[in-house]
Design goal:
Layout: H1 2-33, E1 37-38, E2 43-44, H2 46-75, H3 82-109, H4 116-147, E3 155-158, E4 161-168, E5 172-176, E6 182-186, H5 187-192, E7 195-197, E8 205-213, H6 219-230, E9 243-249, E10 254-262, H7 268-286
Antiparallel strand pairs: 1-2, 3-4, 3-7, 4-5, 5-6, 8-10, 9-10
Length: about 325
């Protein structure tokens, strides 16, 4: 009996000790699970926030990883265009992120997905008050990915900037110039403004090089010299052959235009430079002059006054 009483007291003491030891943990657990938002459509507590943020980070990481793996798999197929490969991988990542966010909101916060319509309504009001430009950029990003007027690796010219497209993101597009300067262009500009795509469609493109010569130049010799300047230049096609056009009689020069075709239109600046070097060299060899604008002044003597024989001051130049 004494042994039984001792065991009961020992068990009660152990339980009391456990209660005292577990007390702080219960309090922590209470605060973690306390729902400061508790409704039929949304339940939020510190623990749910921690779980939700962790799952969101995991979703973003896994979506990027999966899209990268898919991109690497597709890259092994040479018949698939690099721009199409990028579009598939980028769209897959967006889909995975959107689906993942929906699942996290549903599982971690017990969010009724039908209530998201309220969120979109609020966003539409925000768009009306100043987010319309961001919305236009995002919509334009999807247009670029689906319609693909501009692809990764294309050479484009927008306004005074020219470069290669490196990435098409949700809101902006990254373009790298020849000087290795990165230009961040809003997607809406690529959709709404005039853009020259040197890599779109037929890889061949015609390059025009204007040239002015002096009025006393031999037109036939100028034509022959310009054709010769285009021969043997790297990246210039022989079919179609180079052509020369006599454009007009300018103010101080005869204006010609040399037309060449290239399969590397993105290198048009380099091609123009190479041809201009040859034109200058051949013109100097053949004595063909490139004029510069001149202004000629002629001074007339002042007429004399018939009555007095003196010069009329009213005719003097002022």
């Amino acid at each position: 009996m004494d042994q039984f009483t001792f065991d009961n007291r020992h068990l009660a003491a152990s339980f009391a000790l456990f209660q005292n030891f577990a007390g702080p943990f219960r309090r922590v657990w209470y605060y973690l699970t306390f729902r400061f938002i508790d409704s039929d459509t949304l339940k939020v507590s510190p623990a749910r926030l921690i779980i939700g943020i962790t799952l969101l980070v995991l979703v973003i990481y896994l979506s990027g990883k999966i899209s990268s793996i898919l991109d690497q798999r597709i890259s092994k197929r040479a018949y698939i265009d690099p721009g199409l490969r990028y579009t598939i991988a980028r769209l897959l990542r967006y889909v995975l992120v959107i689906v993942g966010i929906m699942l996290v909101l549903r599982q971690a916060f017990s969010l009724d997905l039908t209530s998201i319509a309220i969120l979109f309504t609020a966003l539409s009001v925000g768009i009306g008050f100043g987010l319309q430009y961001i919305a236009a950029d995002i919509a334009s990003g999807f247009i670029l990915l689906f319609e693909r007027p501009i692809r990764i690796g294309d050479r484009i010219t927008i306004a005074e900037d020219e470069g290669d497209v490196r990435s098409i993101n949700l809101r902006t597009t990254l373009v790298t110039t020849n000087d290795n300067i990165s230009i961040i262009v809003p997607n809406s500009k690529l959709v709404s403004q005039r853009v020259i795509n040197w890599s779109y469609g037929d890889p061949r493109a015609r390059i025009a090089i204007p040239v002015g010569v002096a009025y006393d130049s031999d037109v036939d010799m100028v034509t022959e010299t310009l054709i010769l300047a285009a021969e043997g230049v790297e990246n210039v096609l022989t079919d179609p052959a180079p052509r020369v056009q006599f454009l007009k009689f300018g103010d101080s020069s005869l204006d010609f235009r040399l037309l060449v075709w290239s399969i590397q239109p993105r290198r048009h600046l380099e091609i123009k430079s190479d041809i201009n070097f040859r034109i200058w060299s051949l013109f100097r060899e053949r004595g063909i002059e490139i004029p510069y604008p001149t202004t000629e002044f002629r001074m007339r003597p002042e007429p004399a006054n018939p009555a007095t024989g003196e010069k009329d001051p009213s005719n003097r130049t002022r």
